[in-house]
């Protein structure tokens, strides 16, 4: 009996350069950078997309007219250029997970 393995799909090939943030960047900044990257990709490929994120703070920062952060102000114009191509939706995280199913070793949050 011979066993065959299913063919795997080839890896996604993009012409986009590899993006890497600095070690001092926060998770918040990496979420904004990922949203910006997806928006730029959608504009370049002329594809309408909807980005679902559990980061309400990222959406709020993008919509904030008075952001003082240089990082946010650098990202916002690229996202707004894609306003007809990209939708941005907030998805509540941990939906349906009951308290009894949370890990018992979670930290003591204030």
Key descriptive features of the protein:
110 residues, alpha+beta, Nucleotidyltransferase, domain 5, two-stranded parallel ribbon, 9% strand, RNaseH_sf, nucleic acid binding
Characterize the structure shown.
It comes from Araneus ventricosus (Orbweaver spider). This is RNase H type-1 domain-containing protein. The chain has helices spanning about 25-45, 55-65, 70-80, and strands at about 50-55, 85-90. By secondary structure, it is an alpha+beta fold. The chain has a domain at about 45-95: Nucleotidyltransferase, domain 5 (2-Layer Sandwich), CATH 3.30.420.10. It has a two-stranded parallel sheet with strand order 1-2. The radius of gyration is 19 Å and the shape is globular.
CATH architecture of the domain at 47-96: 2-Layer Sandwich
Measured as a percent range, the helix fraction is 25-40%
Summing up helix and strand content along with how strands pair, one would put the structural category as alpha+beta
Order of helices and strands: HEHHE
What's the name of the CATH homologous superfamily of the domain at 47-96?
Ribonuclease H-like superfamily/Ribonuclease H
Radius of gyration: 19 Å
Assign an overall shape: globular
Strand numbers in spatial order across the main sheet = 1-2
CATH domain class name of the domain at 47-96: Alpha Beta
SS summary, helix count = 3
CATH topology category name of the domain at 47-96: Nucleotidyltransferase, domain 5
Count of strand segments? 2
Poorly predicted parts: none
- Could you give a short account of the major beta sheet? 2 strands, parallel
Distance between the termini: 60 Å
Mean of pLDDT: 77
């Amino acid at each position: 009996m011979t066993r065959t393995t299913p063919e795997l799909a080839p890896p996604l090939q993009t012409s986009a350069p590899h993006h890497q943030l600095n070690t001092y960047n926060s998770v918040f900044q990496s979420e904004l950078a990922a949203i910006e990257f997806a928006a730029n990709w959608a504009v370049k490929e002329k594809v309408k997309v909807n980005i679902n994120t559990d980061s309400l703070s990222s959406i709020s920062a993008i919509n904030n007219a008075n952001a003082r952060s240089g990082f946010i102000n650098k990202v916002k114009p690229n996202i707004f250029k894609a306003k007809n191509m990209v939708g941005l939706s907030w998805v509540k995280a941990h939906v349906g997970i009951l308290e009894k199913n949370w890990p018992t070793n979670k930290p003591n949050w204030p």
